[in-house]
Structure formats: C-alpha cells, structure tokens
Design a protein that fits this description.
306 residues, alpha/beta, 4-stranded antiparallel β-sheet, 4-stranded mixed β-sheet
C-alpha cells in the first residue's frame, strides 16, 4: 500500500485503519506535524514526528523504517536527535556503477552493531551474497606482479580483498602518486618508509595503487599488503598464489598488530591461504609463530633474490 502524504496526522490515521505489519516512511525530513509552526526537516519537526512514529511502533507492534537523507560524505543529514531516538541505524552503501551493495549496522539497541551484509545487484534486484569472504577477489590472476591479498575486517566480518600497485617509469619532473579505494596519504607515508628503511629509490617512477572490487578500506591492516604489492610491482615478481597479508606499518618500518588478529587468521586458514603473513606475536595471544616484525623481514621472505 502506498500513501502519498506528508502530514503526520493523516499518516497515523491511515495506519490505524490499515494496521500494517511494516511501515516505511520516506523520508522523515518531509513529514510534518500541522500543530507545529516550524518547517518540515527542522529539529522540532523531526523530533516530534519520530516520537509519534516510535509510540506507534511500540504501542501497536508495527515495525517502522524511517528513511533519512544523507550528505555527500554518506553521513545522516539533519539533526542528530534522529539517530538518538531510533533503536537501530542501518546504512545501505555502494556506487551505482558497482554490482554490490553493503548494508551496515551502526547502532543496535538490542544486539551487536558494526554488522555487515553484502548484496549483489542482479536482474531481479539485490541478492544476498551468502559467503562474501572472497567475493571481492573476483577472477584475479595471481601470476601477475603488483597484486596482493589483504585479509581485511569490516565490522565483524573478515573479507579477502585484492590490493593492486603499479610502479612504472616516469617522464615527469615530479612523479605521480595516485590511490583509489583508500587514503592517498597512507600511500605517501608507506613509500617514504620503504625508501628510508629498504634503501629504495622511487624518485624516477610513477606509483599507482588501488583496492580491487570497488571496495574502500580505512583500516590499518591494509599497510602490509600495500607494501607487498608495491614491492612486487617494483621487482616485477608476483607473490605466491595463495599468499595473504595484514598488518600496520609504522614510520620505523616495524609491523604492528591490528584488531581481530585471531579472526583474520582463522578465516585465512579456512580459505586455504598459504603463506599467511602477519605481525609477529599478533595472533593467538602471541603463541602463533611465523609472523614478521619488520618490512625488511617481509622483503627477505617474499623477495629473497632481490
């Protein structure tokens, strides 16, 4: 049933007559209470309309989805009181040019938050990806240089994501640096660490890096895989086919542990990755062996001949 109405009283009257199981309000910024003199979308209107809908949901057992506008950064637009009043805040993300959508849970008053659900866009709309662990790898060719796999954690879900890098000779006075899918400042920082700690010279090459599959990653565990991809492209030597990496690289070239180490390690083993490169003492409460402590150890382990 569709009701083209923005007046709160008319909406509540129709709901009381129909008594639906689910009510979707699109959007809360256009709904208004005629008893208030403020304009729709103001703090008073949003608070009053949301309170009325909340009482409706609690009193009659109706599940109410309140849709709010978002700004250019993807955050919920308008007054923050909307986020405080509702039980759960979920966000549907994704570029219209990509075939996947991500459903995130930012707040959940009755359960865990930071949950993630991956959808694939099909002919009949969105379809749930049952096991998204390797969904973002696609049909990657592991025999090519300049690619690495990071075991990233988004919310509480571990995802294997491809990181790509291209190191090519430059013909410009100032070499180009480009990053897609993560913060470009991270690329600049890691390149400076590589030049200082591994005595490499990137002054005559352009370096491009991206996260495959259209993903955007912000977690520090990306660092080690990005370093491996840059070294692989620079040496033109591919990484082992089933190699997976994660870890934070500091300014001294040390590899530091990141959150959810045990979760990443168990998922990497379940998917059959080998070798698994991670920070030394950063998994299994420090009982796991085989980790690395520095990017020099990473270079020695994966690129011994260089």
């Amino acid at each position: 049933y569709l009701l083209a109405e923005t007046n709160l009283e008319d909406v509540l009257e129709s709901v009381n007559e129909l008594k639906p199981d689910v009510l979707i309000v699109d959007s809360i910024q256009t709904l208004y209470n005629g008893d208030l003199t403020t304009a729709p979308g103001s703090v008073g209107q949003v608070k009053d309309c949301t309170m009325a809908l909340m009482q409706l949901a609690k009193g009659q057992g109706i599940t109410v989805f309140v849709i709010g506008h978002v700004n250019k950064e993807g955050s919920i637009a308008g007054p923050k009181v909307l986020e405080h009043m509702v039980d759960t805040v979920i966000s549907l993300e994704g570029d219209r040019r990509q075939m996947f959508r991500l459903l995130r849970v930012f707040k959940n008053r009755f359960g865990p938050n930071e949950e993630l659900l991956v959808f694939r866009m099909g002919e009949r709309g969105m379809q749930v990806v049952d096991d998204p662990s390797t969904f973002f790898l696609g049909a990657r060719d592991a025999s090519l240089s300049g690619t690495a796999v990071v075991m990233a954690v988004d919310g509480q879900r571990p995802l294997a994501v491809e990181v790509q890098a291209l190191v090519a000779r430059t013909f410009l006075s100032i070499p180009r640096r480009a990053a897609l899918g993560f913060d470009a400042n991270r690329l600049h920082l890691l390149l400076a660490v590589l030049e200082k700690r591994l005595k490499l010279n990137f002054g005559q090459v352009d370096i491009y890096a991206k996260v495959g599959g259209g993903m955007r990653l912000q977690e520090p565990g990306l660092d080690l895989a990005l370093v491996a991809a840059v070294l692989s492209s620079s040496y033109d030597v591919p990484l082992p086919e089933k190699c997976v990496l994660w870890g934070e690289v500091d300014l001294n070239g040390q590899v530091r542990p990141v959150a959810a180490q045990d979760l990443r390690l168990s998922q990497a083993r379940r998917l059959g990755f080998e070798p698994i490169v991670y920070p030394d003492g950063g998994a299994g409460n420090g009982k796991e062996k085989g980790g690395i402590a520095t990017i020099a150890a990473l270079q020695q382990r994966l690129f011994r001949r260089q």
